[in-house]
Amino acid sequence: KTPIKLLVLPGDGVGPEIMQEANRVLAWLEKNRGVTFDLTYDLVGGASLAEYGVPIRDEVIEKAWASDAVLFGSVGDPKWTHVGFDKRPEIAILKLRQELGLFANLRPAKVFDALVDASTLRPEVVRGLDIMIVRETVGGIYFGEPRGIETLADGSRRGINTEVYTTGEIERVARVAFDLARKRSNRVCSVEKCNVMESGLLWKEVVTDVHGREFKDVELSHMLADNCAMQLVRNPRQFDVLVTGNLFGDLLSDLASMLTGSLGMLPSATLGAVQDNGKRPALYEPIHGSAPDIAGQGVANPIAQILSLAMLLRYSLDMQAEADLIEQAVANVLASGLRTADIMSEGMARVGTAVMGEAIVREL
Amino acid sequence: KTPIKLLVLPGDGVGPEIMQEANRVLAWLEKNRGVTFDLTYDLVGGASLAEYGVPIRDEVIEKAWASDAVLFGSVGDPKWTHVGFDKRPEIAILKLRQELGLFANLRPAKVFDALVDASTLRPEVVRGLDIMIVRETVGGIYFGEPRGIETLADGSRRGINTEVYTTGEIERVARVAFDLARKRSNRVCSVEKCNVMESGLLWKEVVTDVHGREFKDVELSHMLADNCAMQLVRNPRQFDVLVTGNLFGDLLSDLASMLTGSLGMLPSATLGAVQDNGKRPALYEPIHGSAPDIAGQGVANPIAQILSLAMLLRYSLDMQAEADLIEQAVANVLASGLRTADIMSEGMARVGTAVMGEAIVREL
Ligand SMILES: CC(C)[C@H](C(=O)O)[C@@H](O)C(=O)O
Ligand SMILES: CC(C)[C@H](C(=O)O)[C@@H](O)C(=O)O
């Protein structure tokens, strides 16, 4: 069988150490499931800035195009916070999204039964929570022009950014959301600020059109972004799939993640458009950041990284059985009482990064 | 003594009925505290659309200029959701903000001890919560140009909005936040997305400058908006005063309100610039909406409206003692066990709008 080509980008902070645990799972898959991986490693973020003076090289983008998928760790390093807008480690992820056209960020916010007490919300509000947020990631105010800071005649300054969405950009991300809903509880809630922003008004209209033309069987509702922020706190289980723009998605998906109380558990996928050769660029990464405060200590939770690999198997390689196996192994290990520091609670057994990774592989 | 001129705009939905209870408090103040009020009433929102075909008349803006302060109910009426972008009831509030230059929206998110169980968050996370969010309200993406929806050559469409902030706009709202912090716990956290948006980068720089020049005694921190959404869920009591732009403030202040679990309790103030004649335009309103589903039934909670009046006394009339009295009366009535439907819990006495209003006046 032809090997599966993966580009592995561990990045900064805890990225490299949690990626090692994902590697154990890759090795297990090779040994037990008759697949072979062709892994290419490279630097991004602060690690790339230190070595090459840029957060990501064009070469890395090319390697990503040449791969079946990208497995990403995390970027962000306090060392680089003061070096200016074009040398932020975050540019690595923004550029990967934009250059590969990764327009649909899928972020599940799921509460594991064993971890329901990790949430700051009451257990009865979040038990069984299972939301999928679909966030548009190559449009909106993140990339819109004009942008910048200009100095006015009187010496004062003006900062400008532009929110832009086109029919096509909205349609394709809406389709991803409706498709996902069909495999879940068949409900999509589209989120914008149409009472204030014309771009939100267009968003709402286009989502409604796509629904009417192609997805009448899915239940569609609309919600204003401020109300959505409230409803996620009031009664998050009312949602199945949420679809929204880049900026609202940034806040709302982080908010939804935090409802679970265990960020170290949550993976994400960012998907591009299917290409003429049938390939679809895709990147998988934990939703948590690089956590520089605990980096290198061997205490970081590797589960989000391992579940990101499970998403990769599911969405890029159509290896549903293997993805299920990994997710089940994680649930079992949690049920057995193992906990990394971030999800530790009374009566459980506290373990480090490597022990958690090994336990998951053993469970497999 | 010259009477205090108030423009009273009850608006839609529950607005008129909760305003009646604020009126009882006004009457009590006249009788017992040696003040007289000169009250002017007018229509806004759906009520004005029905009568005049516009959400707010220029005449009402002029009356607002001629008043010492505006006491506002709420706008929004499902009857008007399909009439188009320029006939939304919400335009009333947007226009009042813009025409009166009401740039600083003060939104306290406070948990009353008696209502700690109304929150969906664990009591130990929100007990004693007392945040003040200062949101910029006449700039940013709400009013920036260019804006609109354009049709492209191929028939597809493009929605555009513009986020703009100038040095002056950021400075004045930052000053409001720092001033407030000095009367509270002396800490300001400024929120933007400077890792993605240049307008956020300018925001951060200008807030830092104002702090360095005028408010070195106040503790200043900075936070990205997505992280702030998380932190409000993870540990909201870490915050004292938050200052942020119009759009982030819209989401984050609604999120913060919902942490308390009792929106019917929360007032807000929106302040303009001090004018040459020494007057400062200001508007006071509950943070909850018009709640059309329960309007006219006499069950709405009048407390947010009454506490908005208390804020009016505090910020526009410098009647601190009276504001304290009202806030204490509300706390006492809650402690005595009276509850409107929205904050009802076991063992408490359920009452309607009028009984709650009367009880507060009796307590005064
Ligand atoms: C790192 C940053 C640029 C990024 C974003 O804002 O999109 C992150 O917060 C995310 O959500 O993936
Ligand atoms: C009614 C609406 C235009 C308004 C806003 O978005 O500012 C409201 O949500 C608010 O927060 O006061």
Automatic annotation (TrEMBL), chains A, B:
Xref: PROSITE patterns: IDH_IMDH (PS00470)
Chain residues that bind Mg(2+): D226, D250, D254
Catalytic activity: (2R,3S)-3-isopropylmalate + NAD(+) = 4-methyl-2-oxopentanoate + CO2 + NADH
A Pfam family the protein falls into: Iso_dh
Residues at which NAD(+) binds: G289, S290, A291, P292, D293, I294, A295, G296, Q297, G298, V299, A300, N301
Cofactor note as given: Binds 1 Mg(2+) or Mn(2+) ion per subunit.
Family: Belongs to the isocitrate and isopropylmalate dehydrogenases family. LeuB type 1 subfamily.
Full protein name: 3-isopropylmalate dehydrogenase
Organism: Acetobacter suratthaniensis
Organism ancestry: Bacteria, Pseudomonadati, Pseudomonadota, Alphaproteobacteria, Acetobacterales
